[in-house]
Specification:
Length: 304
């Protein structure tokens, strides 16, 4: 029995603001459940009880050393999910979705150049188009060679050993098939933010992305994911701005009765071993996030 090559060190993503740490306990549990094929069983079980559902996953920064593992992740996910393109989201929520596997849609947060340079070519070769959630001010910062300082100020994670501008260029953004808004400046929608600032972050980002890409922007992704980063006022602005789909990070699979205004995603990173990838997407973490999903829904609908 060789779990993680026999080593259980914390898994860390090094970035400008510290460490994103996956505990030894979680790594061991994921490895053990993968070894006894329990995560595979749960994935099949979830497919039975949620027939024709879709799961959404999100990634952040990439490193060159992640490329091979990312391909292995896609191979694994393809065994259990039909990897979809975002143009199938509308038909899914309209009840027109038929496949022998549950679907999976890949998304990327923050508009990092590593996503475009390393992940996007791999996905395109497989015929997969993800959604890239872009904060336009971050893209603008690359034009002035200030993307790292912008990232540090606005809590955008990146690898410390990145030697080039870490934000995508506008030319790269234009090449992407499916783009969504991640606010103007990677801004958390706290209750303390004024209405004018919320409108700038949500409405202006949509307008600018549509102008630069010459595409209709249907998708918005909340920044942060902590409970205090959602507000009813911001939710209303997002809906009134014309976004069809709103994305969180609150782990769940979606069925035809789900709301497109509450699309929950499971977090993956390209450095995650297959055992952890399986753990994150099998459905177990959906139960762990049940209380938070309920709290976010109540907060945005002002339900006491």
């Amino acid at each position: 029995m060789n779990l993680l090559n026999g080593e259980f060190s914390d898994l860390m993503l090094i970035h400008g603001n510290g460490y994103n740490r996956i505990s030894k306990v979680k790594l061991f549990l994921a490895s053990f459940l993968f070894f006894i094929k329990f995560t595979s069983f749960i994935t099949y079980f979830m497919r039975v009880i949620n027939r024709r559902g879709i799961r959404f996953v999100n990634y952040h920064d990439f490193h060159t050393s992640d490329i091979s593992n990312f391909s292995s992740q896609l191979d694994y996910l393809s065994k259990f999910y039909h990897l979809l393109n975002p143009n199938q989201i509308e038909s899914f929520f309209n009840g027109d979705f038929n496949t022998n596997k549950n679907g999976l849609i890949i998304t990327f947060d923050d508009g990092l150049s590593s996503q475009f340079n390393y992940a996007y070519p791999i996905l395109k070769k497989r015929g997969i188009e993800p959604i890239f959630f872009i904060p336009p001010d971050f893209i603008n910062s690359a034009e002035s060679k200030q993307s790292k300082s912008f990232a540090d100020k606005h809590q955008i994670e990146y690898y410390l050993n990145s030697n080039t501008e870490i934000a995508m260029s506008w030319e790269q953004v234009k090449e992407i098939a499916f783009v969504g808004s991640h606010t103007m400046s990677h801004c958390r929608m706290l209750e303390s933010i004024s209405l004018s600032d919320i409108q700038y972050e949500m409405s202006q980002s949509k307008k600018i992305l549509e102008e630069f890409t010459n595409k209709k922007i249907h998708d918005f992704c909340w920044v942060g994911g902590e409970l205090n980063t959602y507000s009813k006022q911001a939710f209303q602005v997002a809906v009134n701005s014309g976004y069809d789909n709103l994305y969180t990070s609150n782990n769940s699979i979606h069925t035809k009765t789900s709301s497109s205004k509450f699309i929950n995603r499971n977090n993956l990173e390209a450095c995650y071993p297959i055992s952890l990838t399986a753990f994150q997407t099998c459905g177990l973490t959906d139960f762990l996030y049940f209380k938070k999903r309920k709290s976010v829904y109540k907060k945005l609908h002002d339900i006491k």
